[in-house]
């Protein structure tokens, strides 16, 4: 338990850390990776190079300091972080390593302003935060291992199917190498894929939504090829999966994690809003929601055109089959052979104003997934349309840049 004096020091110095936050975190990562290069296998080095991880951690540190009197207000955020840490295999013994280099970086960047009293207060605050997260992660590990077909850490899977879904998205059906069962998951959760990257000399980990219903035998992920290919840059792992991972190859997966999922027992309406590859968790949500008893579902999706619109035929078939399912498709760059009314419903970017009469449903929950600018836009529009924040749910992979 933190003393009031410790809380007061942390709150008083939080603005100083916010002012120098990026420099501190940048120094921290450089310092830590020099001392512990093995941790590069845990962190997303593409986010490191682009500075996204530094920005996200700096904001997280400031948010914790600003809410240190009421840490319960950060519970939802901490749960998301714990799920991501568990999916990466973060262990309790790694927290002291991070703490050592974070505190040293604060001292080295701020100089005389970082007095012994200030460093001591931040050490206590960090220790408290680390204990909270480690406790959450321990519970997640235990739950994963106890599930039928569950496990902890990394498990070997074999690629059984590799199916192109569009010009840029490919699905991989993965079965355990030992032939055993796999744990069920909540519709909307993700798994982490660990691959060795020869050009980096170590593994990298990426999280991909599970894009099918649980079946006890296999998992399916649907991966978008990102523009990349240079070691450590965005898209390298997706290019590796598209170009070099084939049927019969082996990959390693973490158990399913994530807080972005529908309540499978609920009967109230849901509205799924996706952009691009953001539809992958929505497919899993949709399949569960349309099972008995079916729920009222509205699916809103935005894509450039039919060439990159994955799983289009499956969605249209579902819209014909289930009377409680409505589908709205927006193409912002339709191809010459894309026909409005047949291939898509509206030209342009997703505009919820155009379909508000169809999406404003009593007691509905709204789920958003896609590029961060897309999610910001849809989130703000839902608020303008009178939807409460509590009914808006979204998923962010990698550093959380959603909140400024």
From TrEMBL:
<dbReference type="GO" id="GO:0008941">
    <property type="term" value="F:nitric oxide dioxygenase NAD(P)H activity"/>
</dbReference>
<keyword id="KW-0560">Oxidoreductase</keyword>
<dbReference type="InterPro" id="IPR001433">
    <property type="entry name" value="OxRdtase_FAD/NAD-bd"/>
</dbReference>
<feature type="region of interest" description="Reductase">
    <location>
        <begin position="149"/>
        <end position="404"/>
    </location>
</feature>
<dbReference type="InterPro" id="IPR009050">
    <property type="entry name" value="Globin-like_sf"/>
</dbReference>
<dbReference type="GO" id="GO:0071949">
    <property type="term" value="F:FAD binding"/>
</dbReference>
<keyword id="KW-0216">Detoxification</keyword>
<dbReference type="GO" id="GO:0046872">
    <property type="term" value="F:metal ion binding"/>
</dbReference>
<dbReference type="InterPro" id="IPR017927">
    <property type="entry name" value="FAD-bd_FR_type"/>
</dbReference>
<feature type="binding site" description="proximal binding residue">
    <location>
        <position position="85"/>
    </location>
    <ligand>
        <name>heme b</name>
    </ligand>
</feature>
<dbReference type="GO" id="GO:0005344">
    <property type="term" value="F:oxygen carrier activity"/>
</dbReference>
<dbReference type="GO" id="GO:0019825">
    <property type="term" value="F:oxygen binding"/>
</dbReference>
<feature type="binding site">
    <location>
        <begin position="206"/>
        <end position="209"/>
    </location>
    <ligand>
        <name>FAD</name>
    </ligand>
</feature>
<comment type="function">
    <text>Is involved in NO detoxification in an aerobic process, termed nitric oxide dioxygenase (NOD) reaction that utilizes O(2) and NAD(P)H to convert NO to nitrate, which protects the bacterium from various noxious nitrogen compounds. Therefore, plays a central role in the inducible response to nitrosative stress.</text>
</comment>
<dbReference type="InterPro" id="IPR017938">
    <property type="entry name" value="Riboflavin_synthase-like_b-brl"/>
</dbReference>
<feature type="active site" description="Charge relay system">
    <location>
        <position position="95"/>
    </location>
</feature>
<keyword id="KW-0285">Flavoprotein</keyword>
<protein>
    <recommendedName>
        <fullName>Flavohemoprotein</fullName>
        <ecNumber>1.14.12.17</ecNumber>
    </recommendedName>
</protein>
<feature type="binding site">
    <location>
        <begin position="396"/>
        <end position="399"/>
    </location>
    <ligand>
        <name>FAD</name>
    </ligand>
</feature>
<keyword id="KW-0614">Plasmid</keyword>
<dbReference type="GO" id="GO:0046210">
    <property type="term" value="P:nitric oxide catabolic process"/>
</dbReference>
<feature type="binding site">
    <location>
        <begin position="276"/>
        <end position="281"/>
    </location>
    <ligand>
        <name>NADP(+)</name>
    </ligand>
</feature>
<keyword id="KW-0479">Metal-binding</keyword>
<keyword id="KW-0408">Iron</keyword>
<dbReference type="InterPro" id="IPR012292">
    <property type="entry name" value="Globin/Proto"/>
</dbReference>
<keyword id="KW-0561">Oxygen transport</keyword>
<comment type="similarity">
    <text>Belongs to the globin family. Two-domain flavohemoproteins subfamily.</text>
</comment>
<comment type="similarity">
    <text>In the C-terminal section; belongs to the flavoprotein pyridine nucleotide cytochrome reductase family.</text>
</comment>
<dbReference type="InterPro" id="IPR039261">
    <property type="entry name" value="FNR_nucleotide-bd"/>
</dbReference>
<dbReference type="InterPro" id="IPR023950">
    <property type="entry name" value="Hmp"/>
</dbReference>
<dbReference type="Pfam" id="PF00042">
    <property type="entry name" value="Globin"/>
</dbReference>
<feature type="site" description="Influences the redox potential of the prosthetic heme and FAD groups">
    <location>
        <position position="84"/>
    </location>
</feature>
<dbReference type="GO" id="GO:0071500">
    <property type="term" value="P:cellular response to nitrosative stress"/>
</dbReference>
<feature type="domain" description="FAD-binding FR-type">
    <location>
        <begin position="152"/>
        <end position="263"/>
    </location>
</feature>
<keyword id="KW-0813">Transport</keyword>
<dbReference type="Pfam" id="PF00175">
    <property type="entry name" value="NAD_binding_1"/>
</dbReference>
<feature type="domain" description="Globin">
    <location>
        <begin position="1"/>
        <end position="138"/>
    </location>
</feature>
<dbReference type="InterPro" id="IPR000971">
    <property type="entry name" value="Globin"/>
</dbReference>
<keyword id="KW-0520">NAD</keyword>
<dbReference type="GO" id="GO:0009636">
    <property type="term" value="P:response to toxic substance"/>
</dbReference>
<feature type="active site" description="Charge relay system">
    <location>
        <position position="137"/>
    </location>
</feature>
<feature type="site" description="Involved in heme-bound ligand stabilization and O-O bond activation">
    <location>
        <position position="29"/>
    </location>
</feature>
